[in-house]
Amino acid sequence: MKRWVWGLAFAVLLVAGPARADDVTAGIAKPAELEVKNAWSRALPPVASTGAVYLTLVNRGAFPRRLLSASSPVAERVEIHSHAMSSDGMVKMRKVEAVEVSARAPVIFKPHGLHVMLIGLKQPLVADKRFSLTLRFERGEVLETQFEVR
Length: 150
Known about the structure:
Blueprint: H1 2-16, E1 34-41, E2 50-59, E3 65-71, E4 75-85, E5 91-95, E6 99-101, E7 107-109, E8 115-121, E9 130-137, E10 142-149
């Protein structure tokens, strides 16, 4: 019986092929599978206490990802928001707890849509400057990027 089990285990290893450390394991993304493109923010007057970051988030992997939070050294707090039409006909911002990023489909964060709010700005958002933004995902993935102030 032991020979049969060892033979089966060996056959499975042969069929499966060698594993590499950078292979996708249990659906966790390799860093190259998640990408931020065109991250930017509007320049604001020095007295502004809030700002927004817009970007395109691309998931090149085979599994969906859930963006849970963001942070930046330029703000006390960072939240993900969307705009939604309320029952009284007014467009209102709403905090979003998570954003689904489907496999091989970009999610666009844009003005008057999904966006990242910078709350309690610690410094002004000045044109032609760059600041960091960190995105955290459900399975522990962390994506660091820079956004440009325009």
